[in-house]
Structures are given as structure tokens and as C-alpha cells.
Design brief:
Largest interface: A-B, 24 and 39 residues
CATH superfamily of the largest domain in chain B: FAD/NAD(P)-binding domain
CATH class of the largest domain in chain B: Alpha Beta
Shape of chain A: elongated
Oligomer: heterodimer
CATH architecture of chain A: Orthogonal Bundle
CATH topology of the largest domain in chain B: FAD/NAD(P)-binding domain
Order of helices and strands of chain B: EHEEHEHEHEEHEEEEEHEEEEHEEEH
Structural class of chain A: mainly alpha
Shape of chain B: globular
Number of domains of chain B: 2
Distance between the termini of chain A: 57 Å
Distance between the termini of chain B: 41 Å
Strand order of the largest sheet of chain B: 5-6-4-14-15-16-13-17
Largest sheet of chain B: 8 strands, mixed
Largest sheet of chain A: 2 strands, antiparallel
Helix content of chain B: 25-40%
Strand order of the largest sheet of chain A: 1-2
Chain lengths: ~90, ~375
């Protein structure tokens, strides 16, 4: 299958070819990929593509999978409405 | 890794890549850019993605205006294959008191004298531009339609790719450990991957600018402070301009992607390099935004983070060299606004390094402006 026909990140619609292009441009890590192409930044938050991205980094740069680090996960762990937080803050 | 260069730039944020690109375009060969982590890993990648020209000092206004002129054509000039997402739908600055309105009038007069198309608005006029604005907590406003949004990641990528095409070498994941200075002249930069001999070093290290200065024996009067931002789920477009308020302590915009991004300062935040985010920020931010822009309260927060403002004594950047150490140049102390000023940062520093006359007066931007003098001009339009 051609890399341009393989979708790696379904949320942000990023193909394997686009990952390869980023590697060619000098970007080596999940942190860099997500900043430019939003890989792993959609509704699934890398639950679907995360492992595949790590696998592709590992293969391309010929490094062990455990060295192809997962991206940094920041709070919150799930979406919370701002007004719910605002009301709670008022009560404290 | 090269062991010799004509210029070594420290810092792979927007300032560093802009300086690299501008120098290369002016014909300087053997330019090396060193970044400890990855491009945009510091303040550039953590910023609010806003571009504004509504400033309170002449220098900041001029830097911002000329930078916007570049951003308007950056996609073509840099021949970028991605999208820098420059969206000019304005900045709406809202104030709460007559006292603040008075400051706004002064600022707008200064901005207009420099051909920046800013104007005063009543709160009713402000509401016409942002319908979900709660005018109960607004006294008056200013608006500049050519301010707007710019994607920090793709803008940096655009500069990076253009710089590379001009022969610039970029070393990411490479840490500067020392700067060798002999006879008050820069000689080399020591990194964890080798030493590079060079007559010129540029300090574009953002939050770590002071530490880089210390390596060269230059005392730069800047400090870094944590500043936090959050982002919501994306929704259909409901807000054109960035809404900001110094008295409410907030800036909030809807990015082209659809997410709302908002941040605020904390003058009590610890000085240093802490980039964590806190629940206290989330609480205060949620309260402020639901008061000022109530419908935004229905959006879910999905992420929050921290970054560093590198503050200078007058909240204006330090751009230029120093008599103390020949060959040592700085682009730091942007006080939270280095991203939007980067085109001029790159142009001015490149002009200074290559011995050309700078495109604008540099008196308010030199390091020596702080030499035992009391500060007369201070930028107060900072969130």
C-alpha cells in the first residue's frame, strides 16, 4: 500500500506519507509531529494512532520502540465545561 | 557537527529561526542554530498565537506593525508549503474603568500616529463585533482590525525550511554548555555534542536568556516567570477577534481550527523556569471567561499548560549587541510578545550583525538603556 493511502491519524487526517515527509524535514519525535500536523491531538487524543506513530518513528530512525517516546499528556484528562469549573471556584 | 561557523544562534524558537533566515538571506554563510530540545519547545510553542499592534510604547508599536506587514506576505516570501494560518480579524481590547479608558486614548493616539489602524469603541460598538461580550463588565474598548491569529508551529516551520534552503544548519537536541570569551571577544560555543568556533553568538534562548548571558559574562537584566494557557474543544466559528483585557487579566481567541485558547498572567508566580500548570489558574480562568464571555463557559476545557515570559525591566525587548563582549548579540526580554515581533527581531539583528543601518531607531531596544538609568518608557499593555 502506498504511504499516501495509509491514514495514520484519523482525527486529524494525517497520512503515513505526511509522517515520512516530516521525518525528512528533520522532525524526529511525537512532540514535533503533533505540533505541525496535529497528529494525536483530535477527539481520540492519540488512543488510536499513538502506538502506530511510535512504531513508525522506531522503524524510520531504527531505534527501539521504547525510545520512540509517546507524547506528553497534559491535564485535563477529560473535557470539563468551563462554567462548571467557574461555579465550583465561586463556592470555595 | 560543524566545528566552525560564522554565526551561532542559540534557541530554536521563532526568534532564532527568524534571525537565521534573515542572516542567510543577507548573504551570511555558515550559520548554525542550536536548540536544546526541539523547535518551538519553549515559549513559541506555548504562546497564545496572537499578533497585535496595539501597544503603549513607540518601539513596540513599530516592531509590531512592521512584523504584521511581513506576516501578511510570509506565506509567499518564505515559499511555504504548509499554512501559517494568519487570520486578521482584529484584537478587541476591553477596559473596565474611566482611568483605563484614558490610557486607551493615549495608546490609540500613539498607534494612529504610527499608521496603525486602531480606534476607540464604545461598549455597544464592541458588542457589535463580539456579540457574546458581557458589556456589564466593560467600560470602553479599542479595536485594531489588522491584528489577529498566527500559528506558532507552522510559522516557525516556514522560517526553518526557508533558512535550511539558504544553507542554515540546525542542530536540535543539542545543549549549549558554555561560551568561550577571550579578550572580551566571543571565540566559541561549547555544546554537549562538540565545540563550534565562531566570532558571533546570538542569544535567542527565551526563558533561558539570562543563563546564556551569564555563560558569556554578560549580565542581562531579565527574569522568567510562569504564565498559563488553556484550550477548549473546537466548535463552529463564533468569535472573530482576540478579546483581551488587562484589568480582567485575560486574552481569549478562537483559532481557525475552532478551539478557544485563553491565558492570563500571575504576578505572584514564582520566578524561574517552572512550566507546570495549576488548578488555581484553571479556577480563575474559568471564572474570568464565564464573566466576560459567558457562552464560552459551555465549552469543555481539554488541555492546559504553562510557559515562560522572559521579562525585561520596561517590558520591551532587548535587541542588539553589547560593548562588554564583542560578537555577543541578544534577542530576549520580550516580556511575553516575542512570537508576534519575530520578523523585526530577525531583520534588525541581522542588520546589526552585518553592519547595516537598522530599519528603525534602536535606542529603546539596546541593553545599555538600562545602564544605571531610571526607566522612563514602560510598556503597560501586557496581560
Amino acid at each position: 500500500m502506498k504511504p499516501e493511502n495509509v491514514i495514520i491519524c484519523r482525527c486529524s487526517d494525517v497520512t503515513l506519507k505526511e509522517l515520512f515527509d516530516l521525518f525528512e524535514d528533520g522532525y524526529e519525535t511525537f512532540e514535533e509531529l503533533k505540533r505541525i500536523k496535529r497528529v494525536g491531538m483530535g477527539p481520540c487524543q492519540a488512543n488510536t494512532c499513538g502506538k502506530m506513530v511510535q512504531w513508525e518513528i522506531s522503524k524510520y530512525f531504527n531505534i527501539p520502540l521504547e525510545e520512540a517516546l509517546f507524547h506528553n499528556i497534559r491535564p485535563l484528562t477529560m473535557g470539563v465545561k468551563l462554567k462548571a469549573i467557574g461555579v465550583q471556584a465561586d463556592e470555595e | 557537527m560543524k566545528n566552525k561557523a560564522d554565526v551561532v544562534i542559540i534557541g530554536g524558537g521563532i526568534s532564532g529561526v527568524s534571525i537565521a533566515y534573515n542572516l542567510a538571506k543577507m548573504g551570511v554563510k555558515d550559520i548554525v542554530l542550536i536548540e536544546r530540545d526541539y523547535l518551538t519547545s519553549g515559549a513559541t510553542g506555548r504562546c497564545g498565537a496572537g499578533v497585535r499592534q496595539q501597544w503603549g510604547t513607540k518601539a513596540n508599536c513599530m516592531l509590531a506593525k512592521k512584523s504584521v506587514e511581513f506576516f501578511e506576505n510570509a506565506q509567499e516570501i518564505l515559499e511555504y508549503d504548509g499554512d501559517i494560518e494568519f487570520k486578521q480579524e482584529g484584537y478587541l481590547i476591553v477596559g473596565t474603568t474611566e482611568e483605563e479608558a484614558e490610557q486607551f486614548r493615549k495608546n490609540v493616539a500613539l498607534q494612529q500616529s504610527l499608521d496603525i489602524p486602531a480606534r476607540m469603541l464604545t461598549k455597544e460598538e464592541a458588542k457589535a463585533i463580539v456579540p457574546h461580550l458581557n458589556t456589564d463588565v466593560v467600560h470602553t474598548a479599542t479595536y485594531c482590525p489588522t491584528d489577529g491569529h498566527l500559528n506558532p508551529f507552522t510559522m516557525t516551520d516556514a522560517y526553518y525550511k526557508a533558512a535550511k534552503r539558504h544553507g542554515v544548519e540546525v542542530y536540535t537536541y543539542t545543549e549549549v554548555q558554555d561560551i568561550i570569551v577571550k579578550n572580551d571577544t566571543v571565540e566559541a560555543v561549547v555544546t554537549n555534542k562538540g565545540t563550534i568556533e565562531t566570532p558571533v553568538v546570538v542569544n535567542a534562548a527565551g526563558g533561558w536568556a539570562k543563563e546564556i548571558g551569564t555563560m558569556a559574562g554578560v549580565d542581562i537584566p531579565v527574569f522568567s516567570r510562569n504564565h498559563q494557557i488553556l484550550v477548549t474543544e473546537p466548535i463552529e466559528k463564533i468569535q472573530g477577534p482576540m478579546v483581551i483585557s488587562f484589568s480582567h487579566n485575560i486574552y481569549c481567541q478562537q483559532t481557525p481550527h475552532g478551539a478557544f485558547i485563553m491565558g492570563r498572567g500571575d504576578k505572584d508566580a514564582t520566578i524561574g523556569h517552572d512550566t507546570h500548570s495549576t488548578w488555581q489558574f484553571l479556577d480563575r480562568m474559568a471564572k474570568t471567561v464565564t464573566t466576560l464571555l459567558p457562552p464560552v463557559g459551555d465549552l469543555r476545557v481539554i488541555r492546559q499548560w504553562g510557559g515562560l515570559y522572559n521579562m525585561s525591566p520596561d517590558s520591551q525587548p532587548i535587541i542588539g549587541g553589547t560593548d562588554a563582549v564583542k560578537g555577543f548579540y541578544m534577542a530576549c526580554g520580550f516580556s511575553g510578545h516575542g512570537f508576534m515581533l519575530a520578523p523585526m527581531t530577525g531583520l534588525l539583528l541581522s542588520e546589526l550583525i552585518t553592519g547595516k543601518t537598522p530599519s528603525m531607531p534602536m535606542d529603546d531596544l539596546t541593553l545599555s538603556r538600562f545602564d544605571g538609568k531610571t526607566i522612563e518608557t514602560k510598556e503597560t499593555s501586557v496581560v
